[in-house]
Design goal:
alpha/beta; 1000 residues; 46% helix; 7-stranded parallel sheet
Length: 1000
Amino acid sequence: MKTMIESAVQKAAIEWLQDLGFTYKEGNSLTRDLKKVVLEDDLRKFLQNTYQDVPATAINEALALFTHHSGMDTDHRNRDFHRKMTQGISITWKDKNDKEFAKHIYPINYAEPEKNSFVCADEVTIIGKNTRRTDLIIFINGLPIIVFEFKNMFAQEVGVDNAHGQIGHYLLDIPQLWDYNALTIISDGREALHGMYNSSLKWFAPWKSLDGDSIERNIDLQLETLIKGLFPKDILLNYLKNFIFHEDHNGKIIKKGAKYHQFWGINKAVESAITNIRPNGDGRLGVIWHTQGSGKSISMAILTGILRQLPEMKNPTIVIQVDRSDLDLQLYESFVLCKDLVGDVQHADTTDELRQLLSTDGGGVIFTTIEKFRLKELENGKETEHPVLSERYNLIIMADEAHRTQYGFNDGGFAQNIRRALPNASFIGFTGTPVDGKDADTQQVFGKTIHTYDIKQAVEDGATVPIYYEPKMVPLNINAVYAEELDQVDEEEEETTHTVWAAIEDAAGSEERVKTVAADILQHFNARIETLDGKAMIVCMSRRNCVKMYDAITALKGCPEIAVIMTSNIGKDPVSWNEHVRTKDNMEAIKKRFRTPDDPLKMVIVRDMWLTGFDAPCAHTMYVDKIMKGHNLMQAIARVNRVFEDKPNGLVVDFIGISGFLAEATKKYTGSGGEGKPTIDMDVAVEMCLQQFATVKALMGDFDVEVFKDMKESEKLKWSNELVNNLLQSDPITDAFLLEERKLTELVAMTNSDKRIWEIQEEVGIIQKIRDVIRKIKMPPGPQRQKNDRIKDLISKSIQSQKIVDLAEMYDLDKIDISIIDDRFQAMVKEKGGENIKVELLRRIINDELKVRMVKNIRKMTTLKEELEKVLSRYHKNSLDSIAAIKHLLDIATEFQNDDIRTKELGLTEDELAFYDLLSANEKILNQTGPVQDLVHRVVALVKKNLQLDWTKKEDARSAIRLAVKKELKGKVPFSELDNLLKEVLEQAEGQYKDWPMMG
């Protein structure tokens, strides 16, 4: 297993890249200034070969532009380079006759992948603010486009989070590398994620498909899937050119890249567009069904950018069409942020403006709501049919939420009007909800579904969180006939069916009912945020009911800050509603407040605003007191499925009775080919929680909380000590407990508002306290393990006056260091009881010390490490009892102490001791006058004097050290023994000074 190290993962990645045609080079073999990151000779060679008609002076100018970027910080310089990489640069020059020429030059040949140079180089040293060596860089035509950071697959204590943390250090130490970086890969071999260099870990994602049609379910080798799925040359260049973009948020640059489902879905849409666009096809480009929360607006922007560049499209006009003005503005703002991809976008504020924009011949992107394709009122009456605005073939209508209800082909219907206005246009639809077989109009307009990313896959990938459903229905006092009529109401006709809707609104808004619902909501929400920090939305039937709910809930004690979000009509609305009236700027401000996790605005009450196209990832609960159906319901509940830090789920609490409509939505969803359910019943979650509680208690010996409460303090100390000791018997037992406890804590966080869970909270608190002790013993706190955890423990609620003893505190774990293992410590570990704990403590301390000392004395530390592994192996196999194991471990610890004492007594430095042991072991053959230490000082000084960067990989550097030491030892060591001793000296030097000058 000695070969199972970090480099094993790195070498596997190189092998897979070589299989794809990449050229491998050792980092120290690259020709470059170590302070620069571009292989300028490679870039110049590519430019010269690709643009042979361009003179050398212009090539040099292009090379300078590709290697110098504008911007005061890394993010702005990265955007500047990305624009040059994807959009090229224009170069002008004059010939000897003063005739001017111009050429648009790209640093990469995207059309012919094989005409580019693809080099993967490992251990690339870069000198910046500090000198660092990166694991693996992919250079395309000499440009360092992609960085890999690996961690040891076989080391339990490190993973992709450590790799991500290291990228953060590289950003500070070698910022010049990140000016060019397009893609960053972090992996421990098993888990592999791609993302942007400046993104937090939650935005890094796996790549799970090789072709877009099938999903790779094997999670054991994500790195192989990522490389074979994303790194074939044509796919990689397509991704680099079209699927990465920068958003400018008032000067703050946010870089984003597509996930695998977006990449494959968009590529299928591009293929369909090329095949089906008029006049060669029938104009139906298809439907992309990607579940809500999985990045639909980004997908639309990327597709728009690609279609605008395709020569087959002949500078198309792309009309982004939505069904509501608030969605129109939200999507428009998203596109404006993606300006690098889509170019300038125009917004049609009126029907006349839309008609004017569509009547021009130039390409571009136009935003509009579908209702602007209405028939106009003229002086002599209403239009009888929509006028023709353009007969161009390169017009593409891209519809957000493509559903048949938006596209009635009845006389004067919007679908008919669009067809008449743009008779040769082609259509593509995006939706987050399924298109079922009844949606004949949808297929007639858009064609078949060309790519699906369903709820099940989105949750598995972590693109969204699961949504749980909790029924808390407060009955409506309405005539039975209205209930029957309600079932017949179509999902798009809710508020137009005035009789039914008004009756339900009145019943839902009755004074007593609103008070009951408000009290229940507040109690539920306060219980929920005790274990899961976050925010909530309350959905009411009408604006009137929203105000009633606000008045009722704010009158209750313990109500957090809450706001009503609704449109207003000051000419008709009661004066008492004035506090809920907001200007556009005020609405944007409150939207920002609700999206900000730490802002005290915890709840909002809405009617229909913010139920579509609005993202507040920290919102985890939706209280529903409004009848919703079909895709309106699906869109609404998706407000709580956004990923946010450690948020495990979203929750929909039903007060009005939407369970039947949810069942219908589920039926439609799965009937259309989607997998997974829109929601999971809270009863299922509670049952899962109780089962998980039983599982964890079984691992802990099924303790009884009542028995525990009756114990004396000394008995509690003994009980908790024995329990921790038992759970530390072996790594598998400890790991199983920590894994199952984490599952329990997440389930408690999601179900804590249910009274059935309250009965076990005290015992869960005890379990969490035991977990904390074990974590502190096994995994001491450190910067790499710190994370912003939204899930809160129940420890503070449990046995407040009867604390479980904190064993970590008792043994002062944070302060124990091998250099102060004195008689007091040795006496403590030799006491009877808690042997598994003490073995684990010693293992941790010795392991930490071995890591520090290994490079200082490879030979001795390797021997001690093997001895440690032998002792622990025998202990875990029960062939060595705990008392004997502790004695052996203390003997190893004593070796460290003895080394420290010897170093001081001999007058040596830490790194000289290993050479002293090496030479003194050969003292009999040494012809040395005076102490061996004098010779050691001279030998180590000679080694250090001849060190240079990457010296272990350079034979001339190794030879220089060997020669210098040989001269010093010549005459002091018999010639027959000299080569063997030199070999040992060089081996120790390689281990100790390998990372020169980055040591310490």
